[in-house]
């Protein structure tokens, strides 16, 4: 199943049209407006073409990308709710717009001005702020941009800022950080970190756990819904080719599942920061914990033995 969209918006600057290699676009002053989202087939073909050239990891697109007039496909929304176990309500789940805009973000990474290798990117941090309830019948306008490349001891960090608007009102913000593993001689231990990691203790945050059983095909099923078919999530042999002993769960599935458990207890205005720690190999059993923390709520995913933390999240 793929995201279905409808876009009848006209660009404000048709005389400045340029081609970026990813579908029809209109650009001016470093704003690239996508008239339509590329199909998953064309995006997968684009990813395949990157296999024949080795990315250097030195450049990202400087433009802000925009896509307007996105409608919600109820069938796709229900499939997303089901796999993450969200309740059915009149509003969108906190994490759903991240999935809805995935093809837009992938198109940015496939832009000719990006020289990062795409396969094997590892999601290590996500920070979402919802300013108000997100109605299902609204039409959403998206803007997305990259922050400057940051160094990491295991490679380089790609930070993406995604914003969603309804009638020009900012209603939702998302910042994601992915690690591109590569040799990095420029890493400086004394440099300021790209984000402030959430603290984590030596033991789970609560004494009572909720066990979750994750099947081997979870990555393939979530990838079909989200569009994220990174081979580290799909099968054991493809994950091993990219440095993992077997396939791992998507970070945004883990965050979505945690939000499904905690979000009903929170208000419409909500910020959820999340660090993806150790990978969750598939199939596996994990334990979910949550606890009140001052004016916030904390959630964690650990292995059943309680000595390996997979995810830490804070709900404000």
Question: Which short descriptors sum up this protein?
Answer:
Thiol Ester Dehydrase, Chain A, 13-stranded mixed sheet, 316 residues, disordered N terminus, alpha+beta, globular, single chain, 13 strands
The CATH superfamily of the largest domain is known as Hotdog Thioesterase
Structural class by secondary-structure content:
alpha+beta
CATH level 3 topology of the largest domain: Thiol Ester Dehydrase, Chain A
- End-to-end Cα distance, whole Å, is 33 Å
The average pLDDT value, as a whole number, equals: 86
Rg estimate, integer Å: 19 Å
Counted by DSSP, the helix tally is: 7
Secondary-structure element pattern, one letter each: EEHEHHHEEEEEEHHHEEEE
Beta-strand percent range: 25-35%
CATH architectural label of the largest domain: Roll
Biggest sheet layout = 13 strands, mixed
Detail the poorly predicted runs. Answer: 1-28
- Number of separate structural domains: 2
């Amino acid at each position: 199943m793929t995201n279905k969209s409808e876009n009848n918006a006209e660009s404000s600057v048709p005389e400045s049209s340029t081609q970026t290699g990813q579908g029809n676009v209109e650009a001016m002053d470093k704003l690239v407006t996508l008239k339509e989202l590329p199909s998953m087939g064309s995006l997968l073909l684009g990813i395949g073409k990157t296999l024949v050239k080795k990315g250097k990891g030195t450049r990202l697109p400087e433009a802000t990308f925009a896509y307007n007039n996105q409608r919600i496909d109820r069938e796709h929304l229900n499939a997303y709710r089901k796999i993450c176990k969200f309740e059915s309500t009149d509003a969108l789940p906190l994490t759903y717009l991240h999935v809805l805009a995935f093809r837009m973000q992938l198109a940015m990474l496939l832009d000719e001005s990006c020289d990062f290798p795409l396969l094997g990117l590892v999601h290590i941090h996500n920070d979402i702020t919802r300013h108000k309830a997100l109605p299902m019948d609204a039409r959403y306008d998206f803007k997305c941009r990259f922050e400057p490349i940051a160094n990491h001891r295991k490679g380089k960090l790609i930070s993406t800022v995604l914003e969603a608007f309804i009638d020009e009102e900012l209603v939702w913000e998302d910042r994601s950080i992915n690690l591109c593993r590569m040799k990095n001689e420029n890493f400086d231990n004394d440099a300021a970190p790209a984000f402030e990691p959430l603290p984590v203790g030596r033991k789970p945050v609560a004494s009572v756990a909720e066990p979750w059983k994750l099947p081997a095909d979870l990555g393939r099923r979530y990838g079909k819904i989200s569009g994220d078919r990174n081979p580290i999530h799909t099968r054991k042999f493809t994950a091993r080719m990219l440095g993992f002993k077997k396939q791992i769960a998507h970070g945004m599935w883990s965050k979505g599942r945690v939000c499904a458990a905690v979000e009903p207890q929170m208000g419409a205005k909500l910020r959820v920061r999340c660090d993806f720690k150790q990978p969750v190999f598939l199939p596996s059993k994990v334990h979910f914990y949550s606890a009140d923390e001052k004016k916030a709520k904390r959630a964690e995913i650990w292995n059943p033995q309680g000595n390996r933390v997979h995810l830490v999240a804070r709900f404000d």
